[in-house]
Amino acid sequence: MATPGLTLDAVLLAAGHSIRMRRDKALLPHEGGLLWQRQLDVLDRAGARQVFLSAREDQAWARDARGFASVVRDASPDSGPLGGIVAGLEQSGQDLLAVLAVDLPQMTTEWFTALLTDCAPGCGAVGRNGKWFEPLAAIYPRGLLPLARAALERRELSLQKLLAAGVAQGLLRVREISADEAPLFANWNEPGAI
């Protein structure tokens, strides 16, 4: 059960270049709207007080996207999801930040609700499938920010090592992903995936 009084903000990661997809994944049609709109709804229903959009300057659609508290820019150019996570943690006024990649079209509010039950003040939660963490649908604690900034400065962009350090330091709890939950993490990276 979630600790009473836990609040969170969220960031939708949509700043990727979508090279394999050959078009901006955020603008893919899905469930009668666009993929970014679907993901914003997931985060809103998960209880996020504010949802930030991590997008690039050249993504014109992001300037007109409604429903976000603000658009944040990656803390460092070409830094992958880590840059957006750092920017989201820096922008957030809450102790916890839900992170969701735009290209996870099967992700649900229920996943984030379940993760939140594993959180505590100063401690977020991340799913793990076998030996791999699932960093792009996780809840990060603000206390992870110094570790994330240091990784960014070293250009250690893999989130696996960062999350392992967060778990070792008691900043993150691990939720093992069940066989039923595994499909939630299927991503849309190539045209054939849609």
Any overview of this molecule?
Helix 3 (80-91) runs antiparallel to helix 5. The protein has helices spanning 35-45, 60-64, 80-91, 109-118, 145-153, 159-168; strands spanning 8-13, 29-30, 33-34, 51-54, 70-72, 96-101, 124-129, 132-141, 172-176. The termini are far apart. The radius of gyration is 15 Å and the shape is globular. It has six helices and nine strands. Strand 4, helix 2 (60-64) and strand 5 (70-72) form a beta-alpha-beta unit. It has a single domain, classed as Spore Coat Polysaccharide Biosynthesis Protein SpsA, Chain A, CATH 3.90.550. Strands 5-4-1-6-8-7-9 form a seven-stranded mixed sheet, with helices on both faces. A two-stranded antiparallel sheet has the order 2-3. The chain is α/β, with parallel strands linked by helices and 194 residues long.
